[in-house]
Amino acid sequence: MKTTRRNSALPTQPWSLALAAVMIVAAISLPRTVLATEQPVLHILGWEDYLDPELAAEFGKKHGVRVEETYFESDTERDRRLAAAGGAGFDLVIVDQAQLPVYRDRGWIAPIDASQVPGLRHYNPRWRQASDGSATHAVPFAWGTVGIAYRADLVREPPRSWLALFQPDATLCGKIKVFDDARELLGTALKATGSSANAREPGDYRKAEQLLREQRPCVARYGVTGSDEEADLVTGAVWAAMAYNSDALMLQEFDTNIRFVLPTEGGLIWVDYMAVLATSTQKPLAYAFLEFLSDPAIGARQALFSQAATPNVEALARLPAGIRSNQDIYPPEAMLAASEMLIAAPPAVMAIRNQIHAKVVTAK
User: Fold this and answer.
1) The pTM is what?
2) N or C, fewer C-beta in 10 Å, the chain?
3) Per-residue pLDDT tens digits for 94-114
């Protein structure tokens, strides 16, 4: 969960200040060869509260490295950050299935050297091959669904359809939250209108845009649901929201009234991968980290922390029966069949999505 860093102050006693000054001078005068022995850093770009910090610390201790994470709040923010830097600045990135082929085609991520990650044998082929390029350029990290999280103690009737969010009744109007990401927001709006989340026809998008326009006055906030005690669902500022299933489950730790449901139209299926940046200066460490996470025992611990479904077959077998049978984490095949995985869209379709998002969500 979120932590607050406290700044350490220099001692205030005169003798301590003198000692501190001596130490600073000594550090400045150290030869470059000594300074060069600083602990190497493995830079990861990912979601907050997603990678188990205990596992990161364990890996760091084992390999004499410091794992440093930089967080993004949406897939779009991650894309923009890497685009601005030309894919540079990090060693590993967590990327969704829709953008993975885009990252590959732009040369931002390097092909995975399978000989460096023997643990690839533990992963379910369904998730290894879920995206174009995922079998060659990434390692599955987690998967799950996008549905509706809600407060059972506040809503009058449990939401069963996406229309509960897109055409909310009077009691929910002003108490809903939906994603700010153009792809996922439009994907769910399309499903609510009876179209495919990956629709390409302009007519389908006109219907989705109209639905979003009608919904806007009832939206309390646009953005991700959050996964800590300050989340809108926990505070009661929001009663129902689009949510990743894993976030909804983490929120239940703060309020047991929070529920998650896949709508009758089906939800969205997401798969997150971990990929090595082509510009990484720590590729051996990056591969070592991927192999570390591929260990079934480590994979099981990571799954318990994130509340997301593990793509690692051997790790899944190590989880408690209650987790493996939890349909909020591992939905029945019938519900998965009704759900869709967002795929990379042609530039023309991406332009339509972004235009609708700009006109409806970001316009003042």
Assistant:
1) 0.84
2) C
3) 999 999 999 999 999 999 999
pLDDT digits (tens, 9 = 90+) for 114-168: 999 999 999 999 999 999 999 999 999 999 999 999 999 999 999 999 999 999 9
Predicted local distance difference test score (pLDDT) of residue 39: 87
- Nearest 5°: the CA angle 300, 133, 277 is 75
- Report the alpha-carbon distance of residue 274 to residue 51 in Å, rounded: 11
CATH of residue 245: 3.40.190.10
Closest CA to 179 of 219, 208, 144, 139: 219
Kindly state whether residue 213 falls inside one of the protein's structural domains: yes
Let me know whether 214 and 350 are in one domain.
yes
- Exposure b/e, 66-93, CB count within 10 A at least 16 = b: ebebeebebbbebbebbeeeebebbbbb
